[in-house]
Specification:
The protein has helices spanning 2-8, 11-23, 29-41, 45-57, 64-76, 80-89, 98-111, 114-134, 142-154, 158-170, 177-189, 193-201, 208-220, 224-236, 243-253, 256-260, 268-279. The protein is mostly helical. It starts with a helix and ends with a helix. It comes from Heracleum sosnowskyi. Belongs to the PPR family. P subfamily.
């Protein structure tokens, strides 16, 4: 019933219904997500905030886990501005954590609004203070940097990604392999292959994410032979391919030349069968 009124955006009836559900103690996290998504999409922002206060009056305490689920749901529905509004207005009752900021940063990056993503980032830094800087590779540090770097590299904004990676290092946060793989992919896509390999060589034990960054980059440039050479080097160094590796190569080698070419370095059948044999 609630879902029907939510999709119809009949806000007044929806509001009466959630009050009745609150009085009867029938509210759960799904109620929050459905009601707030409907209110946010109708730009009923004051009611979005009031909903939390209303439920608190019915005995549903302010809850960070519930807030984060709501924020994640709204960001997934492209309602990230509305999600941020709710977080800011409820800050005195529910203090956001790294998960909250992570959803917002990812939401703004996914929308392409890096200015707003930077504002949220600064909010997170200001709230985290010194203790946040001391954390490495948790939701306050490496992973949040990684989200922004990954988005920038995927969308060709390598300069910004490089600046953020330098800031990471200045804060004493070591990038994880997924972040490094994103940077390597970005360098290759921008035809800066030498810098990509320089980064690879600086990694003591390159893993799957690093090699996938190279492979995806070369396939993006339609350099199937170079991607295959990376694949073979990966196996030689004892890093066994996974199914995703083969799927990438399949996509890169589709077509007459890739499927049936005489050169074994760009022949998909040779790569797939040979790779499986070598990986056993």
């Amino acid at each position: 019933m609630l879902d029907i009124f939510g999709k119809a955006k009949n806000v007044d009836i929806l509001w009466d219904l959630v009050q009745e559900m609150g009085r009867r103690r029938l509210v759960n996290d799904q109620t929050y997500r459905i009601a707030l998504k409907a209110l946010a999409s109708s730009r009923e922002m004051k009611r979005c905030v009031e909903f939390f206060h209303l439920m608190n009056g019915y005995g549903y305490d302010y809850n960070l886990v519930t807030l984060n689920r709501v924020v994640e749901s709204l960001c997934g529905a492209k309602l990230v501005e509305e999600a941020k509004y709710i977080v800011v207005k409820l800050r005195d009752w529910v203090k956001p954590d790294g998960v909250t900021y992570k959803c917002l940063i990812f939401g703004f990056c996914d929308k392409g609004d890096l200015v707003e993503a930077s504002i949220v980032w600064n909010m997170m830094v200001d709230e985290g203070g010194v203790s946040m800087r001391a954390k490495s590779m948790d939701v306050f540090g490496g992973s949040s940097y990684g989200i922004v770097i990954k988005w920038m590299c995927k969308n060709g904004k390598l300069g910004g990604a490089h600046v953020i990676s330098q800031e990471m290092q200045q804060r004493g946060i070591e990038p994880d392999s997924e972040t490094l793989g994103s940077l390597i992919y970005g360098f290759v896509c921008k035809m800066r292959v030498r810098e990509a390999y320089f980064l690879v060589d600086s990694i003591e034990k390159p893993n799957m994410n690093v090699y996938h960054g190279l492979i995806k980059g070369f396939l993006k440039l339609k350099r199937a032979k170079d991607a295959t050479n990376v694949f073979r080097e990966m196996i030689k160094r004892g890093c066994e391919p996974i199914m995703h590796t083969y799927i990438m190569l399949l996509q890169g080698h589709l077509g007459k030349r890739g499927r049936k070419g005489s050169d074994p370095l760009v022949n998909f059948d040779t790569i797939f069968v040979g790779g499986l044999v070598n990986a056993e």
